[in-house]
Amino acid sequence: MIIEKIATTPKVSIGIPTYNRADLLRRSIESALGQDYPNIEVLVSDNASTDRTPEVCQFYTDTHGSRIKYIRQPVNLGATANFSKVLEMASGEFFMWLGDDDWIDSSYVKSCMRELLSDPALSLVSGSPRYYRSGVPACDGRWFNLLQERWWLRVLVYYIKVSDNGMFYGLMRTAQIRQINLSNTMGGDWLLIAGLSALGKLKTVPDTHAHRELGGATLSYRQIARSMGLSRMQAMFPMVSIAKAAWVDIVFKGAAYESRSIWGKLVIGSSVFGLILLKRPVFWILAMKFIIKKKLFPSV
């Protein structure tokens, strides 16, 4: 039975990349260690923090032994590389990221694993995201399922529906996620989950939650660009940047799409490009003003 499999196997790795959040990190680690799923390892990669992060992590390695592994980077690698580091550390068959100021319900891993073990066609299972501002509930994130049979339809529906990165903190199959590079670009988390949707189905378990602090790991586009070393233009026009990156990922770079025909990738990539820009109608208003001003309408 599925319940028996959950009680014994397989191992789940929870990766927590962190930088200078010693106080909030405790809550994140405690929620990972407090899961009612028994076979868990917690992996913390410290991006050269200058606060008390090493002391906090040392406490947990001393008190929880092999259940938690801590590495400290000698220099700050940037946010994306630090997220990749915890994935490199993972020895579990399944993996999830957890923000260093976020926390998950004690049932989160077990609830997601129940779904993953019952359906090998699933690439990712996520709980429902809830957002907070300074510890006060702010809003619930948007959740949805991608259970369509055709890969391209799942990718298109994902880009239509996605509005936050809540699914990024779901449970994934480690072998699959390692096929997909986490891109150091605006919307790299969207690209990664879209890639997973090309490899398999995505599902949300609405009655277990990932609790996320706005302004922490959940940053503004400008803060994201700064933490990733991106240009001001990418921060000013994030949807244009994401649309371009998604098109390149689908058509040329993404390992999740490499077995697909070039024509199929061109059609889906171009469709996704337009769908992402439609998330910011102001872009189209400015474009139409430019066309009218420059008299670029074709003559009839």
UniProtKB/TrEMBL annotation:
Coiled-coil blocks: none
Limits of the Glycosyltransferase 2-like domain: 13-132
MF GO annotations: transferase activity
InterPro entries with a match to the protein in the record: Glyco_trans_2-like, Glycosyltransf_2, Nucleotide-diphossugar_trans
Pfam family, one: Glycos_transf_2
Signal peptide: none
Record keywords: Transferase
CDD domains tied to this protein: Glyco_tranf_GTA_type (cd00761)
Protein name: Glycosyl transferase family 2
